[in-house]
Amino acid sequence: MNAIPIRFPRRTAPSPEQRRLSSAQWTITRRISLVMSVIMLIIGAIVYGVMLFAQRADAERETQWGIDHNTIDSPPVCVWMTVERNGVISSTSGTPAGLPVRSSLAAVRAGAPAVLERVRRGGEEYTVRTAWRGAEVVQAAYGERFQRADRNHLLLAFAAAEAVGLLLVAAASGMLARRAMRPLSEALDRQRRFVADASHELRTPLTQLHTRAQLLVRRSGSATPQQLATDLRRLVTGTRQLGDVIDDLLLSARLPQSPGSRDPVDLATLAEEAVSAEDARAHAMRLTVRLRCGPGRHVVMGTTSALRRVIAALVDNAMGHTPPGGEVVVSVDAPLPGIVSLSVRDTGVGFAPEEATRMFERFARGTAGRGRRFGLGLALAREVIESHGGRITANGRPGHGALFTVELPAARMGETIPRQRTIASCLSAGGRRPDISGH
Fold first, then answer.
1. Element (H, E) at 283
2. What is the model's pTM?
């Protein structure tokens, strides 16, 4: 028999909500980056202005010091001195072309007050001060070449810092935007997940109730009162389980603040309920569903409704992949001290061994099962079992059925089951429970 093809979901296009969240994230990133870039530009402009002011003040001090103390033979660095005495002009050796500023010398000589100016000569800028010193007119020209170089270096440093800072700000703002959007994204994911889980989890109990209701209608004219009472009790049990499913789905939609309460739960009792709930559907599908209870204590700590859903999902999965005339066996054992095992074996179509782990992914589903199968039951079962500190595994071969095994930590001996119902039938000869068959 050929291997069962299992279809896995392709990468779907983002939903409108996801696109809006992504757009909002990029908008936040761009705006934060723009604001930080403007702030860095303002800071850079302030620093550049302070530096320029300080350089101008320094140039003015140097020229004033030159006017007061220096001669053409001993000028300070970057200062060229010019002295005019009795119409004779003398300048520092190597004075740049275009200096001194003769118009300023003539103006001061003619009686004008001291002149402080900035001039450009030969592509360079100079701060020039001209004033009287005793009987001579003195002019000190301060070259701003090194100051301009310092300003250029500062601008280059600011440009590099702006570029690096912009990248860092963009990365940081993107991370912060993602963190800010994460609660909204998780809320949308929980909403979609709740809808998918609700659709899947409600399908099985509703199918069971519908089947029982149909059988009850068919038997209403010929069945004995005892048979009708049994069917009605099972119908009531099904409605109770449906209520449990709805309650759990509503609780799962909330943000969990705590792991929840854990009570002693007897897996054998839950397995018996699951098998009994499926007897009508098994009869309609011409399947045999049996329960085997091994020796030992089968009590674990957990949430009854959640573990009941796990067993129901495993049985439903086995029945959906078993052809008419096949068999599904639910076994409860205590194989090792401290471990309780529940397994569901079927004689159905099986699966390829390499698909054993992938089938627990959400929306991974086979094409051989009957009915609409959404690929959520096994994924939800794994989440529940792992939240209880256990594990679930799958084994199978094409054409040779499948075996799903759940292992959970056993409850301590001092913990009792707060339920009135017992499972004395588990203690029958050989530790075997009587078969519950769909035939």
1. helix 279-285
2. 0.47
Q: What is the sign, positive or negative, of the torsion defined by CA atoms of 344, 349, 352, 353?
A: positive
DSSP type of residue 362: T
The length of the chain is: 439
| Residue type at position 368 | A
Instruction: Please state whether the peptide bond connecting residue 100 to the residue before it is cis, i.e. omega within 30 degrees of 0.
Output: yes
Structure-token pair, residue 14: 């983002």
Residue for token digits 């939800």? Answer: 380
Which residue's entry shows tokens 């957990």? 302
Q: What letter represents residue 103's amino acid?
A: S
Nearest to 96 by CA among 60, 143, 137: 143
Q: What are the DSSP calls for 106-145, one per residue? A: HHHHTTPPPEEEEEEETTEEEEEEEEEETTEEEEEEEE-H
Q: Tell me: the pLDDT tens digits for 319-348?
A: 989 999 999 999 999 988 899 999 999 999
- 8 A C-beta contact, residue 305 and residue 266: no
Q: Are 197 and 248 in contact (CB under 8 A)?
A: no
Q: Which residues pair with 331 in a beta bridge?
A: 292, 343
Report the distance separating Cα 68 and Cα 62, nearest Å: 10
| Contact status, residue 55 vs residue 150, Cβ threshold 8 Å | yes
